[in-house]
Design goal:
Strand content: 5-15%
Strand order of the largest sheet: 1-2-3-4-5
Order of helices and strands: HHHHHEEEEHHE
Number of helices: 7
Radius of gyration: 19 Å
Helix content: 40-55%
Distance between the termini: 33 Å
Structural class: alpha+beta
Length: 213
């Protein structure tokens, strides 16, 4: 359950890093964990410990994860989830933190498609390949129309066009099948495709802080 929560945090805020064991990735994970602490326990890291100590603690955990997984075919998401799990265990145990009263996240195990609100406005599509549980997202907007978000199905336009399968994906056949399904949906629904890691697709959306409507 904890791994699922951390995975959602990472997927929603994921950046592409050149390597797991870097300063940039360490700072990224600290930021994700800080948001998790504030949402779940109502405190920020700098309120309970000096940030230099936080960085040293998490750097030690990062080294442990890096050493223990160097012979495994784990991608960045999976290693960061392991790092976050070790960090959570440390702070909740040694600082005796308790969750906000009455805060019970609505977490469900998904194995297939999911109509989030039951009205077709937001639909999660089961498209494994990048990971066994990978999903893409359909959003229907009044102004922009139907939008399909690739998630990690594709990372840039050429990758999408050629249906290239990265070596770190967990299943090549599933990835190719998901490409076929995603493109068929995009064609049939006349959807705007947003490749979330593709800077060129930013131009399809309103400039921050405005939102698509």
């Amino acid at each position: 359950l904890c791994v699922y929560i951390f995975a959602n945090y990472i997927i929603s805020k994921l950046k592409i890093m050149s390597s797991f064991y870097t300063k940039d990735n360490l700072l990224f994970v600290i930021n994700v964990f800080n948001e998790y602490m504030e949402d779940t326990y109502g405190v920020k890291l700098d309120q309970i410990e000096d940030m230099s100590t936080v960085r040293k603690t998490m750097f030690t955990f990062m080294a442990d994860v890096n050493d223990s997984t160097k012979d495994q075919r784990l991608n960045m998401e999976q290693r960061n989830i392991m790092l976050l799990a070790k960090t959570k265990q440390h702070y909740t145990k040694h600082l005796q933190l308790t969750e906000k009263s009455g805060k019970k996240p609505n977490i469900q195990n998904l194995s297939r498609d999911k109509d989030v609100f039951g009205d077709g406005s937001v639909v999660m599509f089961d498209m494994p390949g990048h990971t066994p549980g990978h999903h893409t997202l359909l959003v229907r907007l009044a102004g922009m129309g139907t939008v399909l978000l690739t998630g990690d199905q594709a990372h840039f336009q050429e990758n999408y066009d050629s249906e290239g399968v990265p070596t770190f994906n967990t299943n090549r056949a599933d990835t190719l099948a998901s490409f076929g399904r995603f493109k068929a949906l995009a064609k049939n629904l006349k959807a705007t495709v947003i490749i979330q890691h593709e800077p060129r697709d930013v131009g399809k959306l309103p400039a921050f802080p405005k939102a698509a409507e």
